[in-house]
Amino acid sequence: MDDKLKVFMDSQIESIAVLYMKGLYVQSAMLLYASIDQMAWLSVKGESEPRDFKNWIDRYFDKDKLSEIGVSADELWEARNSLLHMSTSESRKIKKQSYEKEGVIRKIYYMAGYKCNDSERIDSVMVDLFKLCEGFFWGANKFVEEVRNDREAFPWMDQKLGKLLMVDFPSNVNN
Predict the structure, then answer these.
(1) The total number of structural domains that make up the chain
(2) What range defines the domain where residue 112 resides?
């Protein structure tokens, strides 16, 4: 079980990193959010819901990176919705909210390889995509370790791993 989970997680991490290193930052962020969705789905029995994405971040994402980035799980959920569905920073929820009240979900913009002096405003925040990736990579590895160390806490894992679309090459195929 955990070998397939580790292979799957490693392929997601490698794919995110390759996209980032090629300068495909938006695509890297999109795959990062899709990967969090997938890890959240694997972490719960049955189908996952928006709260599972947020719970996965709160439970596994590197807390120091999340604090350094300065965003909440709710903001990452809305950033996920914005980016995956519309390739923007404005989800439907963000468009509808009033910035005069507390608990506002800010738009997330991404930077890669440079610093931004005006990184935080009332309605938006600049996030270092590299740090976001690091936080996820750390969390994904933590998740795999938790599954390895306590298989009984995830009785549904084998069934869900069996549903993943992965390419399995015969052992006699040369690279």
Answers:
(1) 1
(2) 2-163
